[in-house]
Design a protein that fits this description.
The complex is a heterodimer of chains A (146) and B (299). With 146 residues, chain A is an alpha+beta fold. Chain A contains one helix and ten strands. In chain A, a hairpin with a 4-residue loop joins strand 6 and strand 7. Chain B has 299 residues and is mainly α. Chain B has a two-stranded antiparallel sheet with strand order 1-4. In chain B, strands 2-3 form a two-stranded antiparallel sheet. Classes of the chains: A alpha+beta (146), B mainly alpha (299).
Chain lengths: 146, 299
C-alpha cells in the first residue's frame, strides 16, 4: 500500500509537470491569438514568487532590439491559476514608455501599441500587481511598418 | 527512501522528455573542451541582458513585403545542398538561413516552396537534435492551404523561439548562436539584394541599423572564438562589421507620448534615430554581404 501511494504521488507529480507545460503552451497560443490581426514575433513566459513585504515586486526582465519605423504590439495575459494579475511594461533605458496597467487611473489594457522611431535596445518588464505570485505570458507582435 | 528518488528521477525524465530533446549525446554536438575551459570574457549579467530577439526570421521579410517589392526566389538559399551539410556547425548555421528563407516564403504565401524549406529545416533540426520543436505534419498541412497563413506563421516562429529557449537552457548556446547568425545574415542578404533592385530610404536605414545587431551578434560569437570554425565565422562577419563602422547613427531626443484611441493605448515615441549611410558605403555593404553569405552557404 505504501509503495502504491509513493508511485501514485510520483505519477501525479510527473503528470502535473506535463499538464503545466501544455497549459503554458495553450496560454501562449491564446494570448497570441488575442493580440489581434498582427504577426507574432516573441513570447515571454513568466512565473514569479510572491515578493517580500515592503520590497520591490519581483520582476522578469527581457532585452529586445526594436526597429525604427515599425509599430509593435505588446500584449499581456495572466494564467487562470495565477494569484496576481500580470503587468507588462516597456522601458527605454530607465524611461517608462508604456504599461498595460496605468497606475494613475487604475486602468488595465490587454495590450498597447508602440510606434518605434528609434532603433535601439529596449526592455520589457513583467511583474504581478501588489507583488503577488503569478504566472503569465507577454507577447510581442509586429503590427505594421510606419 | 532511495526508491522514492529513483521514481522521482524517472518521472522527471518522462515529463521532461515531452518537451525537451531527451537526445543522446553526439560528439559533434558537444562543446569542445577548448571552448569550455576558456575563461568567461563577458559577465553573466551582460550575457543575460543580450537581446532576446537578435534576429527574427520574419521582420525583414515583413518590411520588404510592405514596401511592395515583388517576391523573387533569387533571394533564398537553395535546398538541394542540405545533404552536404554534415557537421553540427554547418547544420545549425544553415538551419538559421533556411528559417529566414521560410519566413520570406510564408510572408509571400509561396506554399509549394514552403514544403521544400520545411523539409530542409526538419532534416537539419533532426540532425542537431531539436527536431521535436517542429510539428512538421501540422506545418505541412497548414502550408498547403493559403487560408492557414496566420497559423502557419505563428507555429513556425513559435517553434523557432521554443527551440532557441531549449538550446539556451541545455547548455547548447553555441548552436543557438549559429542559428541566430544564419537568420541574421540571410535577412541582411535579403534586405541588401532587394535594395539593389528597389532602392528605398527606409530599407537603406534598416540596413544601416544592422550595425547594432551585428555588434550584439559578435559579442555572443566571441565567447566561442577559440573554436576554429567560430573564429573563421567571426573573420567573415568582421568584414561586414568593418564597413558598418562608417555608418553613423545619431539620436534626436524627444518625450514619449501616451494616447488612448478607440479604447486602445498607443505609445508614440518622439526620440528619433537618424541613420547616415552614404550610397558608396551602402554599395560596399551590399557587395560584402553577398560575398560573405555566399561563402557561408557554400561551406
Amino acid at each position: 500500500m505504501k509503495k502504491f501511494i509513493i508511485a501514485f504521488s510520483v505519477f501525479v507529480f510527473a503528470w502535473s509537470a506535463f499538464i503545466h507545460a501544455q497549459d503554458v503552451s495553450q496560454l501562449t497560443a491564446q494570448c497570441a491569438a488575442n493580440a489581434g490581426d498582427v504577426m507574432y514575433l516573441k513570447d515571454f513566459v513568466v512565473k514569479l514568487d510572491q515578493g517580500t513585504p515592503g520590497g520591490a515586486p519581483p520582476t522578469a526582465r527581457f532585452a529586445l532590439l526594436l526597429s525604427k519605423n515599425v509599430v509593435y504590439r505588446f500584449s499581456i495575459c495572466t494564467a487562470a491559476n495565477s494569484d496576481g494579475e500580470a503587468v507588462l511594461q516597456l522601458l527605454d533605458m530607465n524611461t517608462l514608455l508604456g504599461s498595460t496597467f496605468i497606475s494613475a487611473t487604475g486602468k488595465d489594457f490587454p495590450y498597447f501599441d508602440f510606434k518605434c522611431q528609434k532603433t535601439s535596445v529596449y526592455h520589457v518588464f513583467i511583474s504581478f500587481k501588489e507583488g503577488r505570485a503569478g504566472e503569465g505570458v507577454g507577447i510581442m507582435s509586429y503590427v505594421k511598418k510606419l | 527512501m532511495p526508491k522514492l528518488f529513483i521514481y522521482l528521477f524517472i518521472a522527471l525524465v518522462v515529463a521532461g522528455s515531452c518537451k525537451s530533446g531527451g537526445a543522446g549525446k553526439d560528439a559533434s554536438l558537444e562543446i569542445p573542451d577548448s571552448v569550455l575551459n576558456m575563461g568567461i570574457e563577458i559577465s553573466e549579467e551582460v550575457m543575460r541582458d543580450i537581446v532576446q530577439n537578435i534576429s527574427s526570421p520574419v521582420e525583414m521579410a515583413a518590411m520588404i513585403k510592405e514596401l511592395g517589392v515583388p517576391y523573387s526566389n533569387r533571394y533564398i538559399s537553395p535546398t538541394d545542398r542540405v545533404g552536404n551539410l554534415t557537421t553540427s556547425y554547418q547544420q545549425a548555421l544553415n538551419l538559421g538561413i533556411y528559417a529566414a528563407d521560410l519566413g520570406y516564403l510564408n510572408m509571400n504565401n509561396k506554399t509549394s516552396a514552403v514544403i521544400d524549406y520545411l523539409t530542409a529545416i526538419k532534416t537539419l533540426s533532426d540532425a542537431i537534435k531539436v527536431g521535436q520543436f517542429f510539428d512538421f505534419t501540422t506545418l505541412k498541412r497548414l502550408a498547403t492551404n493559403s487560408k492557414n497563413l496566420d497559423s502557419l506563421m505563428y507555429i513556425s516562429v513559435h517553434s523557432f523561439n521554443e527551440m532557441d529557449k531549449y538550446l539556451h537552457s541545455n547548455n547548447r548556446t553555441n548552436l543557438s548562436a549559429l542559428i541566430v547568425t544564419g537568420v541574421w545574415i540571410e535577412g541582411l542578404y535579403l534586405g541588401t539584394q532587394v535594395y539593389e533592385i528597389s532602392p528605398n530610404q527606409q530599407l537603406a536605414e534598416r540596413i544601416g541599423e544592422q550595425k547594432l545587431t551585428l555588434d550584439q551578434l559578435v559579442l555572443i560569437l566571441d565567447k566561442y572564438q577559440q573554436d576554429k570554425q567560430y573564429a573563421n565565422l567571426l573573420v567573415e562577419l568582421g568584414k561586414i562589421k568593418d564597413l558598418f563602422q562608417a555608418v553613423n547613427i545619431r539620436i534626436e531626443i524627444g518625450e514619449p507620448e501616451m494616447v488612448e484611441e478607440n479604447g486602445m493605448l498607443i505609445i508614440v515615441q518622439h526620440d528619433k534615430s537618424i541613420v547616415e549611410i552614404s550610397p558608396e558605403l551602402l554599395k560596399s555593404i551590399i557587395e560584402t554581404t553577398e560575398q560573405v553569405r555566399n561563402r557561408l552557404i557554400s561551406l
